[in-house]
Design goal:
The protein has a single domain, classed as Vaccinia Virus protein VP39 (Rossmann fold), CATH 3.40.50. The protein has 7 helices and 11 strands. The chain has helices at 48-59, 77-84, 98-105, 112-116, 128-133, 172-179, 198-207, and strands at 4-12, 15-23, 30-36, 39-43, 66-71, 88-95, 121-125, 147-152, 182-192, 211-220, 225-234. A hairpin with a 2-residue loop joins strand 1 (4-12) and strand 2 (15-23). Helix 1 runs parallel beside helix 2 (77-84) and helix 6 (172-179) crosses helix 7 (198-207).
């Protein structure tokens, strides 16, 4: 394996986006990274919380045949973890950047085939936040169809957004619009890079019946210590 390789690069309205593969010098592991402009968006070094987003969220979903929406494709970790739940009947992944969908369809990422070739999966190139605010919802083939779970991993935190246009979603009105796309007892789960925030937990409690903020800890090979993310689960 080369020490560094750029697998894909594109100019987008939000800046240059690239997919890179490199050897991590501390462990020798093969690492995949996504960079947008000067900002690192994601790394395969840190996927524990993205996987737990699906596991913790779907653990609260009721029923034996679940229709699931994932907001944000990224490296595909949350989507693949959702497919590992045997109850998942259908999976719609909403991704705003066509380039990211293209990486998966070209199978540039490890395990991409397991996601894109699964007959339950549909990748949709759309703005998650616009769909959440719409009447039609997330399923282009069945407008207005409600789902059992929405798993969201797009922004860094509810306050640190990739785009200011996402802000209305993180409000009582925005979250109430989201609930219109959930079946009774449906689940909304959100990944955040920050520790649990009392303000956002309180906001969720204004809209949902049950809310838990899970702290997900994991080993950090770069610091040789431990890091953590938060997964909010609301039903």
């Amino acid at each position: 394996m080369r020490r560094f390789e750029e697998l894909a690069w594109s100019e987008t309205p939000r800046g240059e986006i690239s997919l890179r593969r490199r050897a991590e010098p501390t462990t020798g592991a093969e690492v995949y990274e996504v960079k947008l402009g000067d900002e690192f968006l994601m790394s395969s070094l840190f996927t524990v919380a993205e996987i737990e987003l699906a596991r913790l969220g779907l653990a609260e979903a009721k029923g034996e045949a679940l229709d699931v929406v994932v907001g944000g494709l990224g490296l595909g970790c949350t989507a693949r973890a959702a497919l590992e739940d045997p109850r998942t009947r259908s999976l719609v992944v909403i991704e705003a950047m066509a380039e990211v969908i293209d990486w998966h369809e070209r199978e540039l990422l490890p395990d991409a085939a397991a996601l894109v070739r699964d007959p339950r999966t549909r990748l949709r190139h759309e703005d998650f936040f616009a769909l959440a605010a719409s009447e039609g919802g997330f399923d282009a083939d069945s407008p207005g169809r409600r789902v059992d779970a929405v798993l969201l991993d797009i922004d860094h935190t509810p306050d640190h957004l990739l785009h200011p246009g996402h802000a209305p979603f993180y409000s009582e009105a925005g979250l109430r619009r989201l609930t219109e796309h959930l079946r009774p007892g449906g689940v909304f789960a959100l990944w955040s890079d920050d520790p649990p925030e009392a303000g956002f937990t309180g906001l969720l409690e204004q809209v949902f019946d049950d809310v838990v903020a899970h702290v997900v800890s994991f080993a950090n090979p770069l610091t040789r210590g431990e890091s953590s993310n938060t997964v909010y689960v609301a039903r």
